[in-house]
């Protein structure tokens, strides 16, 4: 029997696998692991069948904590005209006004979730553009999709409103109420602006009053003067905000003077912020100038963050839209590219947590891992080492959910053709 032919019924034991030691709580590098699966869970009971997995690497199902399911797959009808950040903002804004009905958002969101599920993701946080009236359109769709996907992908949402368009004494309070009613997270795009301190304080006070966590897009730029991250850390400490605060992107840190950037990171650590880096999207957008080779990668200072005890995760971000023209919500691809872009392959050997347990903690997802009694949700690759894992896309991986191997057939892009003709 080929080790890819897993039993469709009964219990079974997978022997001779390898798992990152940091996910087991002991040791370093890769360590041996055998698992028995019965009744959809990892079990200590005897198994009906035993399979030799020949050293295959295994991971718990992945968590993708920063995505944009509402934007996904609009590129065919709304391509970025020049690959720049301003080009992306203008293009998506126009497409949103013209095309983002409930049926349009729902169809593209479902397509994206089927991709993520086939690749082995079990938990997703998505940002939803929430400039009125889009909040009244997208959040009901999100709630429907969360119910439909329950048991396959656990969904969480965060609103997305630019800090200078956030009317704290006006319409934003309705958006915040929609977020609270949806069991979601209060989100904001933060960048330097006059009065940023008052805006951040008001935002955090609103989140605190409603019992919500906070999630910021921050300093997604190559401008070294962009320091909203420092302002967020100071605001969290100033207001005493007690919820989880996530900050994404933080690109400008990498082009600031070292002393300035490290001083900001000290405040981020003191404020207890969670960071999520989006290396594929940032490498696509940042330092893009026509006819000129980019001079930097766009990735933030993840190594220095980790050294300060700041929790760092990585995620997909956008997929096939004006902010990132590629991607498929494949966390193994994110892990491979993050490793290459941010040089995660030397030094600490526990970076795999940045794709599993660290985002779980930031988002308050349960993180059962690969322990007895946990749901049997895992990804198994043919790779037997990190070198083998990162050298190929692992297109032949096995995804096990609730103890059974799923059909990993990806949806056909042709399903979206009719939507792309609406523009």
From TrEMBL:
Show where the Amidohydrolase domain sits.
200-405
**EC number(s) per entry:** 3.5.4.1
Keyword Hydrolase found: yes
In the record, biological process GO terms are: cytosine catabolic process
Q: Which GO terms describe its molecular function?
A: cytosine deaminase activity; isoguanine deaminase activity
Catalytic class of the enzyme: hydrolase
**Keyword Cell membrane: yes or no?**
no
Q: Which UniProt keywords apply?
A: Hydrolase, Plasmid
Question: InterPro entries per the record?
Answer: Amidohydro_3, Metal-dep_hydrolase_composite, Metal_Hydrolase, Metallo-hydrolase_Enzymes
Could you say which residues form the signal peptide?
none
Question: One Pfam family this chain carries?
Answer: Amidohydro_3
Q: Which superkingdom does the taxonomy of this entry point to?
A: Bacteria
Q: What is the name of the protein in this document?
A: Cytosine deaminase
What lineage is this protein's organism placed in? Answer: Bacteria, Pseudomonadati, Pseudomonadota, Alphaproteobacteria, Rhodobacterales
């Amino acid at each position: 029997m080929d080790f890819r032919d897993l039993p469709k019924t009964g219990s079974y034991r997978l022997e001779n696998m390898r798992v990152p030691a940091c996910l087991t709580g002991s040791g370093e590098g890769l360590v041996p692991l055998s698992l028995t699966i019965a009744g959809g869970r990892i079990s200590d009971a005897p198994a009906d069948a035993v399979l030799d997995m020949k050293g295959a690497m295994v991971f718990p199902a992945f968590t993708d904590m920063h995505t944009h399911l509402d934007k996904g797959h609009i590129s065919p009808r709304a391509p970025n005209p020049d690959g720049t950040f301003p080009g992306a903002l203008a293009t998506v804004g126009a497409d949103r006004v013209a095309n983002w009905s409930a049926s349009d958002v729902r169809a593209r969101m479902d397509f994206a979730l089927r991709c993520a599920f086939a690749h082995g993701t079990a938990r997703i946080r998505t940002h939803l553009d929430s400039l009125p009236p889009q909040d009244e359109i997208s959040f009901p769709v999100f709630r429907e999709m969360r119910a439909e996907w329950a048991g396959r992908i656990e969904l969480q949402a965060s609103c997305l409103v630019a800090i200078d368009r956030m009317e704290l004494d006006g319409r934003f309070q309705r958006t915040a109420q929609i977020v609270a009613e949806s069991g979601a997270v209060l989100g904001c795009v933060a960048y330097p602006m006059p009065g940023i301190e008052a805006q951040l304080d008001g935002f955090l006070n609103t989140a605190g009053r409603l019992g919500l966590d906070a999630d910021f897009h921050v300093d997604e730029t190559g401008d070294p003067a962009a320091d909203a991250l420092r302002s967020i850390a100071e605001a969290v400490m100033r207001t005493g905000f007690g919820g989880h605060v996530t900050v994404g992107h933080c690109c400008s840190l990498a082009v600031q003077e070292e002393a300035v950037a490290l001083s900001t990171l000290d405040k981020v650590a003191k404020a207890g912020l969670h960071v999520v880096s989006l290396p594929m999207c940032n490498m696509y957008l940042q330092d893009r100038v026509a006819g000129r080779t980019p001079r930097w990668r766009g990735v933030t200072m993840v190594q220095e963050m980790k050294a300060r005890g700041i929790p760092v995760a990585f995620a997909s971000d956008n997929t096939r839209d004006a902010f990132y023209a590629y991607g498929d919500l494949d966390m193994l691809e994110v892990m491979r590219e993050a490793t290459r872009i941010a040089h995660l392959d030397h030094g600490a050997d526990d970076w795999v947590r940045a794709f599993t347990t660290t985002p779980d903690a930031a988002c308050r997802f349960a993180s059962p891992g690969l322990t007895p009694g946990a749901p049997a949700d895992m990804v198994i690759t043919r790779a037997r080492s990190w070198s083998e894992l990162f050298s190929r896309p692992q297109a032949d991986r096995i995804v096990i959910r609730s103890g059974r191997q799923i059909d990993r057939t990806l949806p056909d892009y042709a399903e979206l053709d009719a939507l792309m003709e609406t523009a």
